[in-house]
Amino acid sequence: MTGRFISFEGIDGAGKSTHIRAVADWFRARGADVQLSREPGGTPLAETLRDIVLKEPMGSLTELLLMFAGRRDHVETVIKPALAAGKTLLCDRFTDASFAYQGGGRGLPLAVLETLADWVQEGTEPELTLWFDLPAAQAAARRAGAREADRIEQQDLDFFERVRAGYAARAAKAPGRIVRVDASGTVEQVGAQVLAVLSERYPC
Ligand code: TYD
Q1: Which ranges of 56-182 would DSSP assign to H, the alpha helix?
Q2: Which residues constitute the domain of residue 102?
């Protein structure tokens, strides 16, 4: 049995968390065995690393390595077993976030990221990635007042525009897998786009 691996991406404040819940409901209504996970995190070890990476001051390369250390544990102990059991695994962020944040935002070399991704994932790749895209200024306005910003969310607008460009570059390289959703509209408008993608990809 092989399950389905779907990831959700976008800059902080894009609203992806709301839509993951709707996607989970959509698959459950069609009888799928849905499992939700997230990165950084998704395992006890990776959640500990998440706390560290989002709170403690550190350099960009350390940040990247911690993201991939957590991802390795997540792939081995959660993602691969879930897919082997035929589950529909919905993951709030995956490797594209490292390309966008540490590659685009921090400016780390993409060749290093490619190598780490090959090692860590060993071919485990989402079959579909929904990328919630909107201008950095609009995302910042949505985040304002939501809750205290973590270390990465405290970055300036330029950083988030670079992250956004990182996602765009990634999407251009994997047009069959990464689908851009215009996240600048209302929850209903964005949700309608998401449902349209799902209906097209997974006809009953
Ligand atoms: P997120 O799940 O969006 O946190 P929350 O919705 O609870 O605020 O992700 C946490 C942060 O981690 C976010 O700023 C993006 C960042 N991140 C990276 O920089 N690299 C990565 O590889 C991943 C998975 C996340």
Answers
A1: 60-74, 80-84, 95-97, 110-121, 136-143, 157-173
A2: 4-201
